[in-house]
Amino acid sequence: MFYRLPETLTDELDALKAATAQAASGEMEESTLDRLRVAWGSYEQRGHGVRMVRVRTPAGAVTPAQLRGMADIAERYGAPCLHVTTRQEFQIHDLRAEDVIAVMEDLKGLELATRGGGGGTVRNVLVSPDAGFARDEVFDPSPHAFALTSRMIADPTSWQLPRKFKISFANGPRDGAYALLNDVGFVATMRDGARGFQVFVAGGAGNKPEIAHVLHDFIAESDVWLVSEAIKRVFSKYGDRENRARARLRFLWSALGEETFRQYYEAEYAGLLQESPAPFVPGPVVPVPDSDPFAGAAEPDEAERLWRSRYVESQRQAGRYSVVVPVPMGNLPNATARRLADFLAPIGDDTVRATFGQNLRLRHIPENRLGALFALLQEEGLPSDRPRLSGEAIACTGAETCKLGICRSKGLLSAILEALEASSLDLDRLGDFHLNVSGCPNACGQHLMADLGFSGGARRQDGVAFPAYTLFAGARAGVGHTRLARSFGRVPARAVPDFVVALLGLWLTRDEAPTEAFGDWVLGEGADEVADLVERYDVAPPFAEDPLFYHDWSADEPFSLKKG
């Protein structure tokens, strides 16, 4: 519903099916097939023959019917849940290799595709999760993201890029979509009463992170595709196709320099105009339901009031609310997804979006349905009674399933949250605090965009390896204010939960109530205290003295650097 599938999708799926048959008969190398499948958003997990697929959902938007349909597909092929990613997508894990094509065909029946979910392709287009109802937004860029997606995925050159190409739309300068940390970022703005975008280019949070650079102070909203396509063509022509580690757009910007990059961009833009392309028209805005949101609303009890204070936000539309549904580790059980879909269906089609925190953000919920929603979340065992920090914390899939993972990031995050919730700290005072864990130096867990982030790695003591994490702290988002988290050294994995309790204890129990942001304190007057704390916890006992120290969290075997 939110984007149009390309007319060529059926033929392309047939070609992938034929390639799969060729590999099975020995006519094609398995490695060749794997490269094809990656561009279709299908990756091999740890465990021979087990794969996952990544579903394209721009802005994280799906209809209730699509949410239910994805849960049905996951269950049909043996997956216990839908996985919500940090880029507003859904993944289905634990699939047999022979079922992958069938899953893609079933998703097509829901008007969803996995094409471009991996490899050198145009990836899922992001949008601020509160777009369409935030009180401070300039305007809702969701229709632009949907229209751009439809146009980009219909172009075969979108699948032939040097590496991934990421686009993001923010609904205002607060930059709730991390537009300044993507290859192309559009930030909604106004000029002389006209809607448009400030455009940023060549940002990223992975290897050698970079805050994006201003390409345009203002473009008309009708120019979104022209700008995106011109940048894509520069990337395709001049990006590094030999050295994968330096193949992202930010490396091209650095290699060319701003002046040359702009010259190439302006030439591609002018060339596009000569082609007389079809005009770019943003998609329609899905209307907010017009039913009475107040009729029959009941007074909430104490538990519901606490939940409302943590996870419920009033929208600018009277009587409508946005609700964050915390999804532990991003894993949404199929039965829960179906119940949520059935709850949302009578309210409207644009009522659920995936967030960067691996959660769901429900929208346009009438006040008189909040009580029923709270009861549903309690019945489904979702952590609606936990502090906001616990509900918003992020961990990538880590070494448990990712072939690139070094550490078990999910196991660590569970241990951190357990330690925090067992402490005497008032976690509600932290408010919208971002605690993010990545299982390796790649930024899938968004550790560089966190108030407090951890990136997995390894250390050795007397020749024996153990898991350890680099601490990052102090990130901030916002046009003119974006700041990546700074590294503060490494802490052994087994010491991280106690370290986090101690660090947040320092912050929350200072003589004065916190008035400055945590990140400002960490990078300012608290920097020396943080460094001292890291040094105190960066201690590893001999293996013979404490063998468990050399196990990763949630691992039965001693830590190993073996991948794949």
Automatic annotation (TrEMBL):
Species assigned in the record: Phaeovibrio sulfidiphilus
Higher taxonomy: Bacteria, Pseudomonadati, Pseudomonadota, Alphaproteobacteria, Rhodospirillales
Residues annotated as transmembrane: none
Residue ranges constituting the Nitrite/Sulfite reductase ferredoxin-like domain according to the UniProt record: 44-108, 315-379
Keyword set includes Calcium: no
Keywords, alphabetical: 4Fe-4S, Heme, Iron, Iron-sulfur, Metal-binding, Oxidoreductase
Molecular functions per Gene Ontology: 4 iron, 4 sulfur cluster binding; heme binding; metal ion binding; oxidoreductase activity
Entry keyword Iron: yes
Protein name as catalogued: Nitrite/sulfite reductase
Domain named Nitrite/sulphite reductase 4Fe-4S: residues: 119-268, 395-537
Entry-linked InterPro entries: NIR_SIR_4Fe-4S, NiRdtase/SiRdtase_haem-b_fer, Nit/Sulf_reduc_fer-like_dom_sf, NO2/SO3_Rdtase_4Fe4S_dom, NO2/SO3_Rdtase_4Fe4S_sf, NO2/SO3_Rdtase_FeS/sirohaem_BS
